[in-house]
Amino acid sequence: MPMPHPSSAPDGGRPPGREPAQPVRQRGAPEPPRTGWDTGTPFVPAGRGPGVAQTSLPVPGPTAELPPAHTSLICVALPGLVISTEEGQLNGRGLEGFYRAGRRVLSRCQVRVAGREPLAMQARMLAADRARFVGTVRASRDVGPDPDVVVERTRHADGVERITLRSSAPRTLRLPVEVALGTDLAELGAVASGRAGPELPASVHASGLRWSSATGHATVTADPPPNDALASAGLLRWELELPPGGTLSVELRVRPDGQGPIRAVGRGAASPFAQARAVSDVPGVEALLRTCVEDLGALLLRDSRHPADTHLAAGAPWRCGLAPAEALAAARMTLPLGTRLAAGTLRTLARTQLAGPGPRSGLIPGPLRDGGPHLPPSCTATEATLLFPVLLAEARLWGLAEQEVEELMPAAERCLDWLRTTAGDGTYLPDPQPGGPFRCETQAHAHRAALLGADLLDAHGRTGGTGLREWAQALRTAFRDDFWLEDRGGGRPAAARTADGRLVPQLGSSASHLLDTGLLGSGQLAPGLLDKVRTEQLARLLGGPAMDSGWGLRSLGAKEAAYNPFGHRSGAVRVHETAVAVTGLAAAGYEKEAASLLRGVLAAAESFGNRLPEMYAGEQRTQGSAPLPHPAASRPAAISAAAGVLLLSSLAGIRPDVPARTVTLRPFRDAPLGEIALTGLRISGAPFSVRVSRLGVAMVEEADGGLQLGM
């Protein structure tokens, strides 16, 4: 049934006759290297909102190979970032170095004690923003083979490195300590593409060194001041006396010239996240939730012109800026931690929304994303525009103040108007590229946006809800036949339907979005695109060995053509879509399949030190094996850290409806992680805690006094 709104066809990404402009970036932001999953060079359309350098539909371009980052220790407290190897020394190779706002302010920091480099013993992350490196030196020649000096280096993303020497020697040691420093002041994009250039000459400055170029300046100061500074070699030297059992420290501060310490958005009271905690019968659950919350805080950014509004960067090291679709998806998954991030993300993106007449009015711009071997690139602008009203509707149920909801309603209405205009008289939402397919997940996003958007319009006295529900009903009825491939095994949903009616048969993790129906009021879920029989078949397929790798859900089934366990859209495990599958399967009553995927991700998280990358190889899990990392995956990544929050909170099945003053619990009946307690969550801004017993019974332990437990 057509929606009562004028019809208009999509224009395929840019106005006729208009050539794309050059990329526009925030001052100091890194030039984004072209990756295999974000294709092309983006351009900024006229009429974008102020305060955020926002990209629109990109022009396809070649991909570039990124240097591997899977073994790096990445400390993040945006806009600060430091990338190290397990060796501990910064040798100026690859991505190593301290970065601030996308520029490398120090690329080399090499320590020598008594003329020797410390022997690397251990490297580990202490928190999202700092790492610890331990090495040893044999400073006394008469003590045999045993080292007698421990060199500990604690490296912070805010631009501080503390070098501590501890002696086990029986006598006082007189130790020369040297630190060799250097930088190229290159942007991260240039570093990643091998265009960083040579190191710059240094000059002595105060108690350290200074470097200058046409693009900026950087300084390193030391406390205590060095005994000698040699600018030509970039060298600082100390003569230290270390008594038996004694400890001495040197602190280096790396700064862009004239700038103070980095003030990370996610620290202290400025963080929009509740300090959630988890206690479970399964070891590692508490550490996983703590790490996910830390990583989310480390990736927070402020809108430069509206600093009260925060949003998440996509991930480090490659995408330390705003990716609209991923920022909205991550904010939605973190609603159990509070609604402040959702509000800031929505306000930030509302300012980028396209205005004026034309078929793209209401669109939230975003780049193309590679669609894998069987489909053309997909448009994240479509995904972001459909996610906007969904996030606003669910944030309202989690307790976003009605005043804030009302403020954002015009932007949500424009998103829904864009949906009505683009779908027009058709049953399905088309791909924005000319001749592009009707994608399975796009229809799922559109269906959810229509139903949750209709509820949102009704709740705020707007018109249009009836038309959206009618279109969603027509989409449901047609989709169940038009997108289903019958076969001897019971059939499967198609990945897409071409304009001439042909089906793309490959099964991948994008089908998980068919299970993500969205939350309506009174603890009810919106109806899905599939009926009960087809939902059961999809659950069986997602839980089968072709899709469930044992570490999570493969992005393409292992039996499909072009399967590649490292392919980001052709076989790798994508944590976000695995989390979507877990929550959707559990909500539909298929807890066995959901629990298998959940345990797989938790096992993978343990192998990655509880810092989940955005993806990893979809190799089949075997006894004693570990998941293989993807060399170019972002880690930390907002969408995977948020997925960790969603996975653990889904065990309690929390479904709030703050306007109705109720909260409903739908926990896993089989309690796949045994007893689990979640504390420090937020509903309506108040603390919320829940416990799920080993029998699958959920009990609220702390809540706003005005909330009632729904049935």
Commentary on this structure:
This protein is of the alpha+beta class and 711 residues long. The chain has two domains: 79-256, Beta-galactosidase, Chain A, domain 5, CATH 2.70.98; 268-709, Glycosyltransferase. The strands form ten sheets. The chain has an eight-stranded antiparallel sheet with strand order 8-9-10-11-18-15-14-13. Strands 4-7-12-17-16 form a five-stranded antiparallel sheet, with no helix packed on it. It is elongated and about 80 Å long. The model is unreliable at 1-63 (pLDDT under 50). β5 and β6 form a beta hairpin. It is built from twelve helices and 36 strands. α3 (324-333) packs antiparallel against α4, α3 runs parallel beside α5 and α10 (575-587) runs antiparallel to α11. 24% of the residues lie in helices and 24% in strands.
Short description:
The chain has 711 residues and is α+β, with helices and mostly antiparallel strands. The protein has 12 helices and 36 strands.
- Write down the CATH topology of the largest domain: Glycosyltransferase
Topology, number of strands: 36
Under CATH at level 1, the class of the largest domain stands as Mainly Alpha
Number of helices: 12
How many domains make up the coordinates? Answer: 2
Q: What is the mean predicted local confidence, pLDDT? A: 88
Q: What distance lies between the first and last C-alpha atoms, to the nearest angstrom?
A: 34 Å
Q: Unreliable segments (pLDDT under 50, ≥5 consecutive)?
A: 1-63
SSE-based structural type: alpha+beta
Spatial strand arrangement across the major sheet: 8-9-10-11-18-15-14-13
What sort of overall outline do the alpha carbons produce when their principal axes are compared?
elongated
Largest sheet: 8 strands, antiparallel
Strand content: 15-25%
Helical proportion, percent range = 10-25%
Spatial extent as radius of gyration:
27 Å
User: So, CATH architecture of the largest domain?
Assistant: Alpha/alpha barrel
